[in-house]
Each structure stands twice: as C-alpha cells, then as structure tokens.
Design a protein that fits this description.
single chain, 231 residues, alpha/beta, Rossmann fold, two-stranded antiparallel ribbon, globular
C-alpha cells in the first residue's frame, strides 16, 4: 500500500491579535517601548514587570504572541485555573511564522504611532528570552524604526545574516542584558555574537545583573534612565 502524496499549501487569513499598553498618549509622549515576552508567557502578566516604567511621557506596549496554549501539562479538560501562555514560533513552517509575526508587530507599531507624538525621540524594542530572537528579527526585517534594541536573557536570532544585521542595526544601539545566575546562558555563543557585532561595527553594550533568567527592576530602570515610580 502506497502512502498518499501530501504537499503543503498555504493560505493567508485575517485574525485578531492582542496587545497591552500603559503610560501616556498624545503630544506629551516622546518615548515608546515595545517589550516582547518569552516562551510560555502571557502579555498581561509580563506587562507587570514593566510597571516601574509607567510615566506620562512614555508608552510601554506589550504585544502577545499569536500562538497560545495551556501551560499546565495536566490531561483532560482545562478550566480557568489553568494558565495560558504563548509562543512566537516553533520550528514548523518557521519562515511563514516569522513573516506573520513581523507583519503583526509592524501593524502594532503603526497603530501606536497614531496615538503618540510624531516627534517620539526614543523607540526601544526589548525582547526577553524567546522574545529576544523575535525582537532582533523584527528590528532587522520589519519597520519598527527602533533607536535601541535590548536583548534580555538571550541573543540575536542566529538565522540573521551578517549583511542583514549590518543593514538592520545601522544606527540602532544594541544592549545585551545578562544575569549572572541565568542557567540559560551560553558564554561561547555570547562571545561569538559580541565579536560579530564588533566586526560589523555595530554599537553595543553588555549589562550584567546579579539575578537569573528574569526581568529585574534595577537593570530595567538603568536602561530607562528613570527612577522607580512612587507608590
């Protein structure tokens, strides 16, 4: 018995995505942050890490990845007590997954631009863990018009060519944020990426904090050049 001949086909569909925003709007806004969560995280919970950045002159935008799933591995039905997370992509149909989320993030940036001042001087794209790879692809392949790229708990997507990086990161300040106790760190990969950016003439810096694989408020405030919000 012969196996059926299967060929992959693709179709583009419209769907509804979700993002959160905090901070000011209108002519008083001169700083925009787009922060991308990691694997298995959800945008609403992830946004809490950035409440220290909430300020009238700054808008913080937290898009949620397009693929949601139940994080808890328990079998059977899932109810409201089971957490839901999201993923930016998997290895399956990866090129289309990347193209879809780049287009989605471009659309978010375009919509946010309509609510912020036209003279926003600082546009920061920050990605955490899996979101770091997503952020680097978006800045290089998309249209976020970023002035800064912050890669926290991970590095650049390794499928970006040196030529693409040189062009996409031209004029963008890159910051790697690394935790001393982050068990996901790969020093050899870090050294390789640092050397690559040096060779390409891309401006970058490295911030190391004493924590692990997490968004910590102190280095975040250092990045923002801001003080903690009074509560």
């Amino acid at each position: 018995m012969t196996e059926p001949r299967l060929s992959p086909r693709h179709i583009q569909v419209a769907r509804t995505a979700r993002y959160y925003a905090m901070g000011g709007s209108g002519d008083g806004v001169d700083e925009a942050w787009f922060v991308l969560h990691g694997y298995r995280q959800a945008a609403r919970r992830f946004a809490r890490r950035f409440e220290v950045l909430d300020a009238p002159g700054r808008i913080v935008v937290v898009p949620e990845a397009l693929s949601r799933f139940y994080v808890d591995p328990s079998p059977g039905r899932h109810g409201p007590e089971h957490r839901v997370g999201a993923s930016w992509m998997t290895r399956e149909d990866r090129d289309n997954e990347i193209a879809d989320y780049v287009a989605y993030l471009d659309a978010v940036a375009s919509e946010v631009a309509g609510t912020a001042a036209p003279s926003v001087r600082r546009r920061v794209v920050l990605g955490f863990s899996q979101g770091a790879h997503t952020a680097s692809r978006w800045v290089v392949l998309g249209r976020p018009t970023a002035t800064e790229l912050v890669l926290w708990g991970a590095g650049l997507a390794t499928d970006l060519s040196p030529d693409a990086l040189a062009a996409g990161l031209d004029g963008v300040r890159v910051t790697f944020v690394r935790g001393e106790d982050d068990r996901h760190r790969h020093p050899r990969e870090e050294a390789s990426q640092d050397a690559l950016l040096e060779d390409l003439g891309v401006s970058f810096r490295v911030l190391v904090h004493p924590g692990g694989h997490e968004i910590a408020p102190e280095p975040l405030l250092d990045l923002a050049g801001a003080r903690a919000v009074e509560t």
